[in-house]
Amino acid sequence: MKFKTSLITSVLSLGLFGASASATATDLEVTHWWTSGGEAAAVKVFADAFNAGGDNWVDGAIAGSGGTARPIIISRIIGGEPMGATQLNHGRQAEELVEAGLMLDLTELAEKEGWTDIVRPSKLLESCTLDGKIYCVPVNIHSWQWMWTSLKAFETAGIEAPTNWGEFVAAAPKLREAGIIPLAVGGQAWQTSGMFGVMVIGIGGMDLWRSVYVEKNMDVINGEDMKKIWQAYDDARNLTDPKNSIQNWNDATNQVISGQAGAQIMGDWAQGEFSVAGQTAGVEYDCLPGLGNRAVLDTAGDAFYFPKNDDPEVTEAQLRMASMMLSKEVQVGFNLKKGSLPVRADVDLEAANACMKKGLEILANPENILPSGDQILNRDTQGQLEDLSSEFFADKSVTIEDAQARFSEILELAE
Predict the structure, then answer these.
(1) What is the pLDDT of residue 256?
(2) How many domains does the chain have?
(3) Which of the residues 168, 245, 256, 361 has the least number of beta carbons within 10 Å of its own beta carbon?
(4) Helix (H) or strand (E) holding 148
(5) Containing H/E element for 191?
(6) pTM score
(7) How far apart are the C-alpha atoms of 268 and 249, rounded to whole Å?
(8) Which string of b and e fits 94-124 if b means at least 16 CB within 10 Å?
(9) Rounded Cα–Cα distance for residues 180 and 178 (Å)
(10) Residue 402's domain is classified under what CATH number?
(11) How far apart are CA 105 and CA 218, in angstroms?
């Protein structure tokens, strides 16, 4: 794949990146799906920093989840109506767009600023790389491996807050007696699918996870250890509100914040909602990485891609935005609001809350880190697994045996 690099080279030589104001102010539309309270606060950090450089962030928020936004984003790019920048998850989501030559090559900027030295874990930047060229900016580390508990809910029920999944399941009857929903969950498929993935790690462990998703060992996938995961997932679907009408993840988080629900299994972006609500980790709520069983986190997250265009001024603004997103000050400000962890290891996170510090401690040991599904499975396989897990969660006529058999079929054919 060949790209024009003369413009990038000229921009770099002029030193237009960093905190200094741009020579030419440019409007840049940015699409993303960050619309909850905590997410909006995080987006504002990016927008304010970009505008402070003399350009103009034109917000293109798309309501709904990434599953809603991604087809719209991709359709616009393929259809010749690209935005200036767009959020996607680093991994394989933009692979075909990059291969089609529709994304801006950021390699020279990355080399100038030493991204390979500052981005950690290194596989985040590797997920932005194709054929040795870098096409996206990783902006955070998100992990699904968290269970959030309402300390108020357990106090109301007159019981100790759980420290792991087993204790939580055992406490559920007492929560119900107190009129509290044990497990809060939204009705969107990605939420229940993510919950299942957390259980594979939190209950089954790292070796099981690798055997299933990386090695695709059919004996393990069809075996008793994997059956235990489906049994735990069956427990989870029986701990929710049978009359649940909630769809959005942040509405489920708010049930935990208000003490209406005992817990939620959700990624660390939930921290942003607790922060907006003025709650403090260890006081009103607690966080259990790996369901309290295992100190392990996956390294999913968000990245920004910059669709190619024919306007040199837009291209310069895209490069300024890419540089801004990885700057130290912005990395700290954005991730403190988002509830995620920065991709830079050289920033001061003294202001991090107790849950973020738990995450940083876990990430300090490479043995505790695993890649996300976006990095090891293509979108087709992920979609099939998501459909299966959400159908099982919603329809109790689907048995554990049937679900495990279908799970096996999907992974056997996965590329």
Answers:
(1) 98
(2) 2
(3) 245
(4) strand 146-150
(5) helix 189-199
(6) 0.80
(7) 12
(8) beebbeeebbbbbbbbbeebebeebbbbebb
(9) 6
(10) 3.40.190.10
(11) 39
